TrEMBL record:
PANTHER family, per database record: ZINC FINGER MYND DOMAIN-CONTAINING PROTEIN 12
All copies of domain MYND-type, residue ranges: 27-64
PROSITE patterns the UniProt entry points to: ZF_MYND_1 (PS01360), ZF_MYND_2 (PS50865)
Protein name: Zinc finger MYND domain-containing protein 12
Protein keywords: Metal-binding, Zinc, Zinc-finger
Lineage: Eukaryota, Metazoa, Chordata, Craniata, Vertebrata
Length: 355
Protein backbone atom coordinates (compact mmCIF):
# COMPACT_ATOMS: atom_id res chain seq x y z
CA UNK A 1 0.00 0.00 0.00
CA UNK A 2 1.45 3.36 -1.00
CA UNK A 3 2.08 5.97 1.70
CA UNK A 4 -0.07 9.08 1.55
CA UNK A 5 1.80 12.16 0.29
CA UNK A 6 2.71 14.73 2.91
CA UNK A 7 0.26 17.62 3.04
CA UNK A 8 2.24 20.85 2.63
CA UNK A 9 -0.17 23.22 4.30
CA UNK A 10 -3.59 24.00 2.88
CA UNK A 11 -4.81 26.75 0.61
CA UNK A 12 -8.22 27.82 -0.65
CA UNK A 13 -9.37 30.10 -3.44
CA UNK A 14 -9.67 33.78 -2.63
CA UNK A 15 -13.28 34.96 -2.57
CA UNK A 16 -12.99 38.31 -4.31
CA UNK A 17 -16.39 39.52 -3.01
CA UNK A 18 -15.08 39.16 0.56
CA UNK A 19 -12.31 41.69 -0.10
CA UNK A 20 -12.74 45.47 0.18
CA UNK A 21 -13.50 47.10 -3.17
CA UNK A 22 -10.35 47.84 -5.16
CA UNK A 23 -8.21 45.47 -3.07
CA UNK A 24 -5.80 43.15 -4.89
CA UNK A 25 -3.83 40.44 -3.09
CA UNK A 26 -0.32 39.57 -4.30
CA UNK A 27 1.62 36.31 -4.19
CA UNK A 28 3.97 36.01 -1.21
CA UNK A 29 6.81 34.78 -3.42
CA UNK A 30 6.52 36.47 -6.82
CA UNK A 31 4.24 39.47 -6.12
CA UNK A 32 1.92 38.53 -9.02
CA UNK A 33 -1.86 38.53 -8.63
CA UNK A 34 -2.85 35.95 -6.02
CA UNK A 35 -5.63 33.39 -6.42
CA UNK A 36 -5.10 31.29 -3.27
CA UNK A 37 -4.79 32.01 0.44
CA UNK A 38 -3.43 30.01 3.37
CA UNK A 39 -6.40 28.47 5.21
CA UNK A 40 -4.56 28.57 8.56
CA UNK A 41 -3.49 32.21 8.91
CA UNK A 42 -5.73 33.58 6.09
CA UNK A 43 -3.37 36.56 5.70
CA UNK A 44 -0.89 35.05 3.22
CA UNK A 45 -1.65 34.72 -0.50
CA UNK A 46 -0.26 32.89 -3.53
CA UNK A 47 -0.56 32.90 -7.30
CA UNK A 48 -0.69 29.09 -7.47
CA UNK A 49 -0.30 25.87 -5.47
CA UNK A 50 3.37 25.51 -6.43
CA UNK A 51 4.33 28.79 -4.74
CA UNK A 52 2.12 27.97 -1.74
CA UNK A 53 3.95 24.67 -1.23
CA UNK A 54 7.38 26.22 -1.80
CA UNK A 55 6.65 28.87 0.84
CA UNK A 56 5.29 26.29 3.27
CA UNK A 57 8.46 24.18 3.05
CA UNK A 58 10.76 27.21 2.99
CA UNK A 59 9.42 29.17 5.99
CA UNK A 60 5.64 29.58 6.23
CA UNK A 61 5.05 26.42 8.29
CA UNK A 62 7.20 27.95 11.05
CA UNK A 63 5.75 31.48 11.04
CA UNK A 64 2.16 31.00 9.87
CA UNK A 65 0.39 32.06 13.07
CA UNK A 66 2.90 34.82 13.85
CA UNK A 67 1.86 36.59 10.64
CA UNK A 68 -1.69 37.04 11.91
CA UNK A 69 -0.36 39.45 14.55
CA UNK A 70 1.28 41.78 12.05
CA UNK A 71 -1.13 41.42 9.11
CA UNK A 72 -4.51 41.71 10.83
CA UNK A 73 -5.03 45.38 11.77
CA UNK A 74 -7.07 46.00 14.93
CA UNK A 75 -7.86 49.10 16.97
CA UNK A 76 -5.15 48.05 19.44
CA UNK A 77 -2.53 47.37 16.76
CA UNK A 78 -2.97 50.90 15.39
CA UNK A 79 -2.24 52.43 18.79
CA UNK A 80 1.31 53.03 20.03
CA UNK A 81 1.45 49.93 22.25
CA UNK A 82 0.18 47.80 19.38
CA UNK A 83 2.75 49.25 16.99
CA UNK A 84 5.56 48.46 19.42
CA UNK A 85 4.30 44.89 19.81
CA UNK A 86 4.11 44.51 16.03
CA UNK A 87 7.71 45.71 15.65
CA UNK A 88 8.87 43.20 18.28
CA UNK A 89 7.15 40.38 16.43
CA UNK A 90 8.74 41.50 13.16
CA UNK A 91 12.18 41.57 14.81
CA UNK A 92 11.61 38.00 16.00
CA UNK A 93 10.50 36.99 12.50
CA UNK A 94 13.64 38.55 10.97
CA UNK A 95 15.91 36.51 13.23
CA UNK A 96 13.92 33.30 12.70
CA UNK A 97 13.96 33.72 8.91
CA UNK A 98 17.67 34.56 8.95
CA UNK A 99 18.53 31.38 10.84
CA UNK A 100 16.33 29.18 8.64
CA UNK A 101 17.69 30.67 5.41
CA UNK A 102 21.29 30.39 6.62
CA UNK A 103 20.79 26.76 7.62
CA UNK A 104 19.30 25.83 4.25
CA UNK A 105 22.06 27.68 2.39
CA UNK A 106 24.72 25.80 4.37
CA UNK A 107 23.07 22.56 3.27
CA UNK A 108 23.04 23.67 -0.36
CA UNK A 109 19.23 24.01 -0.45
CA UNK A 110 19.17 27.33 -2.27
CA UNK A 111 15.65 27.02 -3.66
CA UNK A 112 14.25 26.17 -0.23
CA UNK A 113 16.16 29.07 1.33
CA UNK A 114 14.53 31.59 -1.01
CA UNK A 115 11.19 32.12 0.85
CA UNK A 116 12.89 32.69 4.21
CA UNK A 117 15.47 35.03 2.66
CA UNK A 118 12.78 37.01 0.82
CA UNK A 119 10.64 37.41 3.92
CA UNK A 120 13.71 38.40 5.98
CA UNK A 121 14.44 41.19 3.46
CA UNK A 122 10.83 42.39 3.34
CA UNK A 123 10.47 42.43 7.11
CA UNK A 124 13.86 44.13 7.55
CA UNK A 125 12.72 46.97 5.29
CA UNK A 126 9.61 47.43 7.43
CA UNK A 127 11.58 47.53 10.68
CA UNK A 128 14.82 49.29 9.71
CA UNK A 129 14.06 51.17 6.49
CA UNK A 130 15.37 50.35 2.99
CA UNK A 131 18.70 52.20 3.35
CA UNK A 132 19.68 51.04 6.83
CA UNK A 133 22.96 49.16 7.35
CA UNK A 134 20.87 46.53 9.14
CA UNK A 135 19.52 45.57 5.73
CA UNK A 136 22.90 44.13 4.68
CA UNK A 137 22.50 40.62 6.20
CA UNK A 138 19.13 40.21 4.47
CA UNK A 139 20.54 41.34 1.11
CA UNK A 140 23.42 38.87 1.48
CA UNK A 141 21.13 35.94 2.29
CA UNK A 142 18.92 36.58 -0.72
CA UNK A 143 21.94 37.15 -2.97
CA UNK A 144 23.51 33.85 -1.88
CA UNK A 145 20.26 31.97 -2.51
CA UNK A 146 20.02 33.45 -6.00
CA UNK A 147 23.68 32.68 -6.74
CA UNK A 148 23.05 29.06 -5.86
CA UNK A 149 20.12 29.01 -8.28
CA UNK A 150 22.16 30.59 -11.07
CA UNK A 151 20.37 33.96 -10.94
CA UNK A 152 23.65 35.85 -11.05
CA UNK A 153 22.30 39.14 -12.46
CA UNK A 154 19.75 39.46 -9.66
CA UNK A 155 22.39 38.44 -7.09
CA UNK A 156 24.65 41.22 -8.41
CA UNK A 157 21.81 43.76 -8.04
CA UNK A 158 21.18 42.68 -4.44
CA UNK A 159 24.87 42.92 -3.60
CA UNK A 160 25.02 46.37 -5.16
CA UNK A 161 22.27 47.46 -2.75
CA UNK A 162 24.15 45.80 0.11
CA UNK A 163 27.31 47.73 -0.80
CA UNK A 164 25.38 51.01 -0.75
CA UNK A 165 23.92 50.26 2.69
CA UNK A 166 27.31 49.12 4.05
CA UNK A 167 28.93 52.47 3.19
CA UNK A 168 27.46 53.87 6.42
CA UNK A 169 28.95 51.11 8.56
CA UNK A 170 32.36 50.75 10.20
CA UNK A 171 31.44 47.26 11.45
CA UNK A 172 34.15 44.79 10.39
CA UNK A 173 31.70 41.86 10.40
CA UNK A 174 29.36 43.60 7.94
CA UNK A 175 32.20 44.32 5.51
CA UNK A 176 33.73 40.85 5.93
CA UNK A 177 30.47 39.11 5.01
CA UNK A 178 29.82 41.52 2.14
CA UNK A 179 33.26 40.95 0.57
CA UNK A 180 32.94 37.18 0.96
CA UNK A 181 29.64 37.23 -0.88
CA UNK A 182 31.07 39.51 -3.59
CA UNK A 183 34.05 37.19 -3.95
CA UNK A 184 31.72 34.23 -4.46
CA UNK A 185 29.73 36.16 -7.07
CA UNK A 186 32.84 37.12 -9.04
CA UNK A 187 34.08 33.52 -8.83
CA UNK A 188 30.76 32.35 -10.29
CA UNK A 189 30.90 34.91 -13.12
CA UNK A 190 34.54 34.10 -13.92
CA UNK A 191 35.95 37.49 -12.87
CA UNK A 192 38.73 35.85 -10.87
CA UNK A 193 40.84 38.97 -10.29
CA UNK A 194 37.85 40.71 -8.71
CA UNK A 195 37.18 37.55 -6.69
CA UNK A 196 40.73 37.59 -5.30
CA UNK A 197 40.41 41.29 -4.44
CA UNK A 198 37.21 40.70 -2.47
CA UNK A 199 38.49 37.60 -0.69
CA UNK A 200 41.58 39.58 0.31
CA UNK A 201 39.28 42.19 1.86
CA UNK A 202 37.24 39.40 3.45
CA UNK A 203 40.43 38.10 5.12
CA UNK A 204 41.46 41.58 6.25
CA UNK A 205 38.16 42.41 7.96
CA UNK A 206 37.88 38.90 9.44
CA UNK A 207 41.39 39.12 10.91
CA UNK A 208 40.60 42.53 12.38
CA UNK A 209 37.45 41.19 14.04
CA UNK A 210 38.35 37.59 14.93
CA UNK A 211 42.15 37.33 14.62
CA UNK A 212 44.34 35.90 11.88
CA UNK A 213 44.12 32.32 13.16
CA UNK A 214 40.34 32.18 13.50
CA UNK A 215 38.26 29.69 11.53
CA UNK A 216 36.30 32.59 10.02
CA UNK A 217 39.48 34.15 8.62
CA UNK A 218 40.68 30.79 7.33
CA UNK A 219 37.38 30.48 5.47
CA UNK A 220 38.58 33.38 3.33
CA UNK A 221 41.90 31.58 2.78
CA UNK A 222 40.02 28.51 1.55
CA UNK A 223 37.91 30.50 -0.92
CA UNK A 224 40.98 32.35 -2.18
CA UNK A 225 42.78 29.02 -2.66
CA UNK A 226 39.91 27.77 -4.81
CA UNK A 227 40.32 30.79 -7.08
CA UNK A 228 44.08 30.17 -7.41
CA UNK A 229 43.27 26.56 -8.28
CA UNK A 230 41.24 27.86 -11.25
CA UNK A 231 44.21 30.04 -12.21
CA UNK A 232 46.66 27.11 -12.00
CA UNK A 233 48.59 28.47 -9.02
CA UNK A 234 49.06 25.11 -7.27
CA UNK A 235 51.92 26.17 -4.93
CA UNK A 236 49.71 28.97 -3.55
CA UNK A 237 46.77 26.55 -3.24
CA UNK A 238 48.91 24.11 -1.22
CA UNK A 239 50.14 26.89 1.05
CA UNK A 240 46.68 28.30 1.73
CA UNK A 241 45.09 24.87 2.25
CA UNK A 242 47.87 24.05 4.72
CA UNK A 243 47.04 27.15 6.80
CA UNK A 244 43.34 26.27 6.76
CA UNK A 245 43.98 22.66 7.79
CA UNK A 246 46.29 23.64 10.67
CA UNK A 247 43.75 26.09 12.10
CA UNK A 248 40.85 23.65 11.85
CA UNK A 249 42.95 20.84 13.33
CA UNK A 250 43.71 22.98 16.39
CA UNK A 251 40.06 24.08 16.67
CA UNK A 252 38.62 20.58 16.39
CA UNK A 253 41.22 19.15 18.77
CA UNK A 254 40.11 21.67 21.42
CA UNK A 255 36.44 20.80 20.79
CA UNK A 256 37.25 17.09 21.08
CA UNK A 257 39.17 17.60 24.34
CA UNK A 258 36.26 19.60 25.76
CA UNK A 259 33.81 16.91 24.64
CA UNK A 260 35.82 14.15 26.36
CA UNK A 261 36.05 16.19 29.58
CA UNK A 262 32.31 16.85 29.53
CA UNK A 263 31.54 13.15 29.03
CA UNK A 264 33.68 12.39 32.07
CA UNK A 265 31.71 14.98 34.06
CA UNK A 266 28.02 13.94 33.83
CA UNK A 267 26.84 17.12 35.55
CA UNK A 268 28.17 19.22 32.65
CA UNK A 269 25.61 19.97 29.94
CA UNK A 270 26.91 19.52 26.39
CA UNK A 271 26.25 22.25 23.84
CA UNK A 272 24.35 21.11 20.74
CA UNK A 273 26.47 20.76 17.61
CA UNK A 274 25.74 23.28 14.85
CA UNK A 275 24.43 21.18 11.95
CA UNK A 276 24.63 23.98 9.38
CA UNK A 277 28.27 24.71 10.23
CA UNK A 278 29.10 21.00 10.14
CA UNK A 279 27.81 20.70 6.56
CA UNK A 280 29.88 23.69 5.44
CA UNK A 281 33.06 22.54 7.21
CA UNK A 282 32.64 18.98 5.94
CA UNK A 283 32.44 20.24 2.35
CA UNK A 284 35.54 22.39 2.82
CA UNK A 285 37.63 19.61 4.40
CA UNK A 286 36.55 17.05 1.80
CA UNK A 287 37.59 19.44 -0.97
CA UNK A 288 41.04 19.80 0.60
CA UNK A 289 41.39 16.04 1.17
CA UNK A 290 40.47 15.27 -2.44
CA UNK A 291 42.99 17.87 -3.64
CA UNK A 292 45.77 16.34 -1.53
CA UNK A 293 44.96 12.76 -2.56
CA UNK A 294 44.95 13.70 -6.26
CA UNK A 295 48.03 15.94 -6.03
CA UNK A 296 51.14 14.43 -7.67
CA UNK A 297 53.21 15.37 -4.59
CA UNK A 298 51.05 13.20 -2.26
CA UNK A 299 51.84 15.06 0.99
CA UNK A 300 51.13 12.31 3.57
CA UNK A 301 51.27 14.71 6.52
CA UNK A 302 48.65 16.98 4.95
CA UNK A 303 46.42 14.02 4.03
CA UNK A 304 46.66 12.73 7.61
CA UNK A 305 45.94 16.17 9.05
CA UNK A 306 42.83 16.82 6.94
CA UNK A 307 41.49 13.26 7.33
CA UNK A 308 41.97 13.57 11.10
CA UNK A 309 39.98 16.82 11.01
CA UNK A 310 37.15 15.03 9.23
CA UNK A 311 37.28 12.14 11.69
CA UNK A 312 37.02 14.55 14.65
CA UNK A 313 34.24 16.51 12.95
CA UNK A 314 32.11 13.41 12.40
CA UNK A 315 32.87 12.05 15.87
CA UNK A 316 31.58 15.28 17.38
CA UNK A 317 28.55 15.10 15.07
CA UNK A 318 27.78 11.61 16.40
CA UNK A 319 28.46 9.59 13.22
CA UNK A 320 30.91 6.92 14.38
CA UNK A 321 30.96 5.09 11.04
CA UNK A 322 32.16 8.12 9.05
CA UNK A 323 34.54 9.11 11.84
CA UNK A 324 36.06 5.62 11.75
CA UNK A 325 36.49 5.73 7.97
CA UNK A 326 38.31 9.06 8.01
CA UNK A 327 40.26 8.00 11.12
CA UNK A 328 41.62 4.94 9.33
CA UNK A 329 42.55 7.09 6.31
CA UNK A 330 44.40 9.46 8.64
CA UNK A 331 46.19 6.62 10.45
CA UNK A 332 47.35 5.05 7.21
CA UNK A 333 48.77 8.37 5.96
CA UNK A 334 50.45 9.18 9.28
CA UNK A 335 52.53 6.01 9.67
CA UNK A 336 55.84 7.89 9.50
CA UNK A 337 54.61 10.97 11.42
CA UNK A 338 54.66 10.23 15.19
CA UNK A 339 53.21 13.62 16.20
CA UNK A 340 50.01 12.83 14.28
CA UNK A 341 49.82 9.08 14.84
CA UNK A 342 49.24 9.30 18.60
CA UNK A 343 46.17 11.62 18.58
CA UNK A 344 44.67 9.69 15.63
CA UNK A 345 45.07 6.40 17.51
CA UNK A 346 43.51 8.07 20.56
CA UNK A 347 40.43 9.05 18.53
CA UNK A 348 40.12 5.55 17.06
CA UNK A 349 40.30 4.14 20.59
CA UNK A 350 37.46 6.45 21.61
CA UNK A 351 35.43 5.22 18.65
CA UNK A 352 36.00 1.55 19.46
CA UNK A 353 35.12 2.17 23.13
CA UNK A 354 31.90 3.95 22.19
CA UNK A 355 30.72 1.09 19.92
Amino acid sequence: MEASPRVLGKASKIISLALPKGTEKLCELCQKTAHLQCTKCRVTFYCDAEHQQADWVGIHERICQMLVTIRSPTVLSLQQAGCIQSQLVKAELIEMCRLVAQSKLSEGKHQEALPAAQFCLRCSKDVHGPRSVQMVPAYLLLAEANMGMGNLAWAAELLSQAEWAALKSSDHVVHQRLHRCLGRLHTATGNLEAALFNFANDIYFASEEYGLDSTVTRGGYFLMANVYAKLGGLPIVRSLYSEVAQTWHCHLTKLLDTHVQNVQSPDTELEPYDEAERVEVDDMLRTMLEFEQNDSRKDSAQIALVAHCLAMLWFLAGDSLKALGFGNTALQASQLIPDLTEPIQGLLQLLHTAR
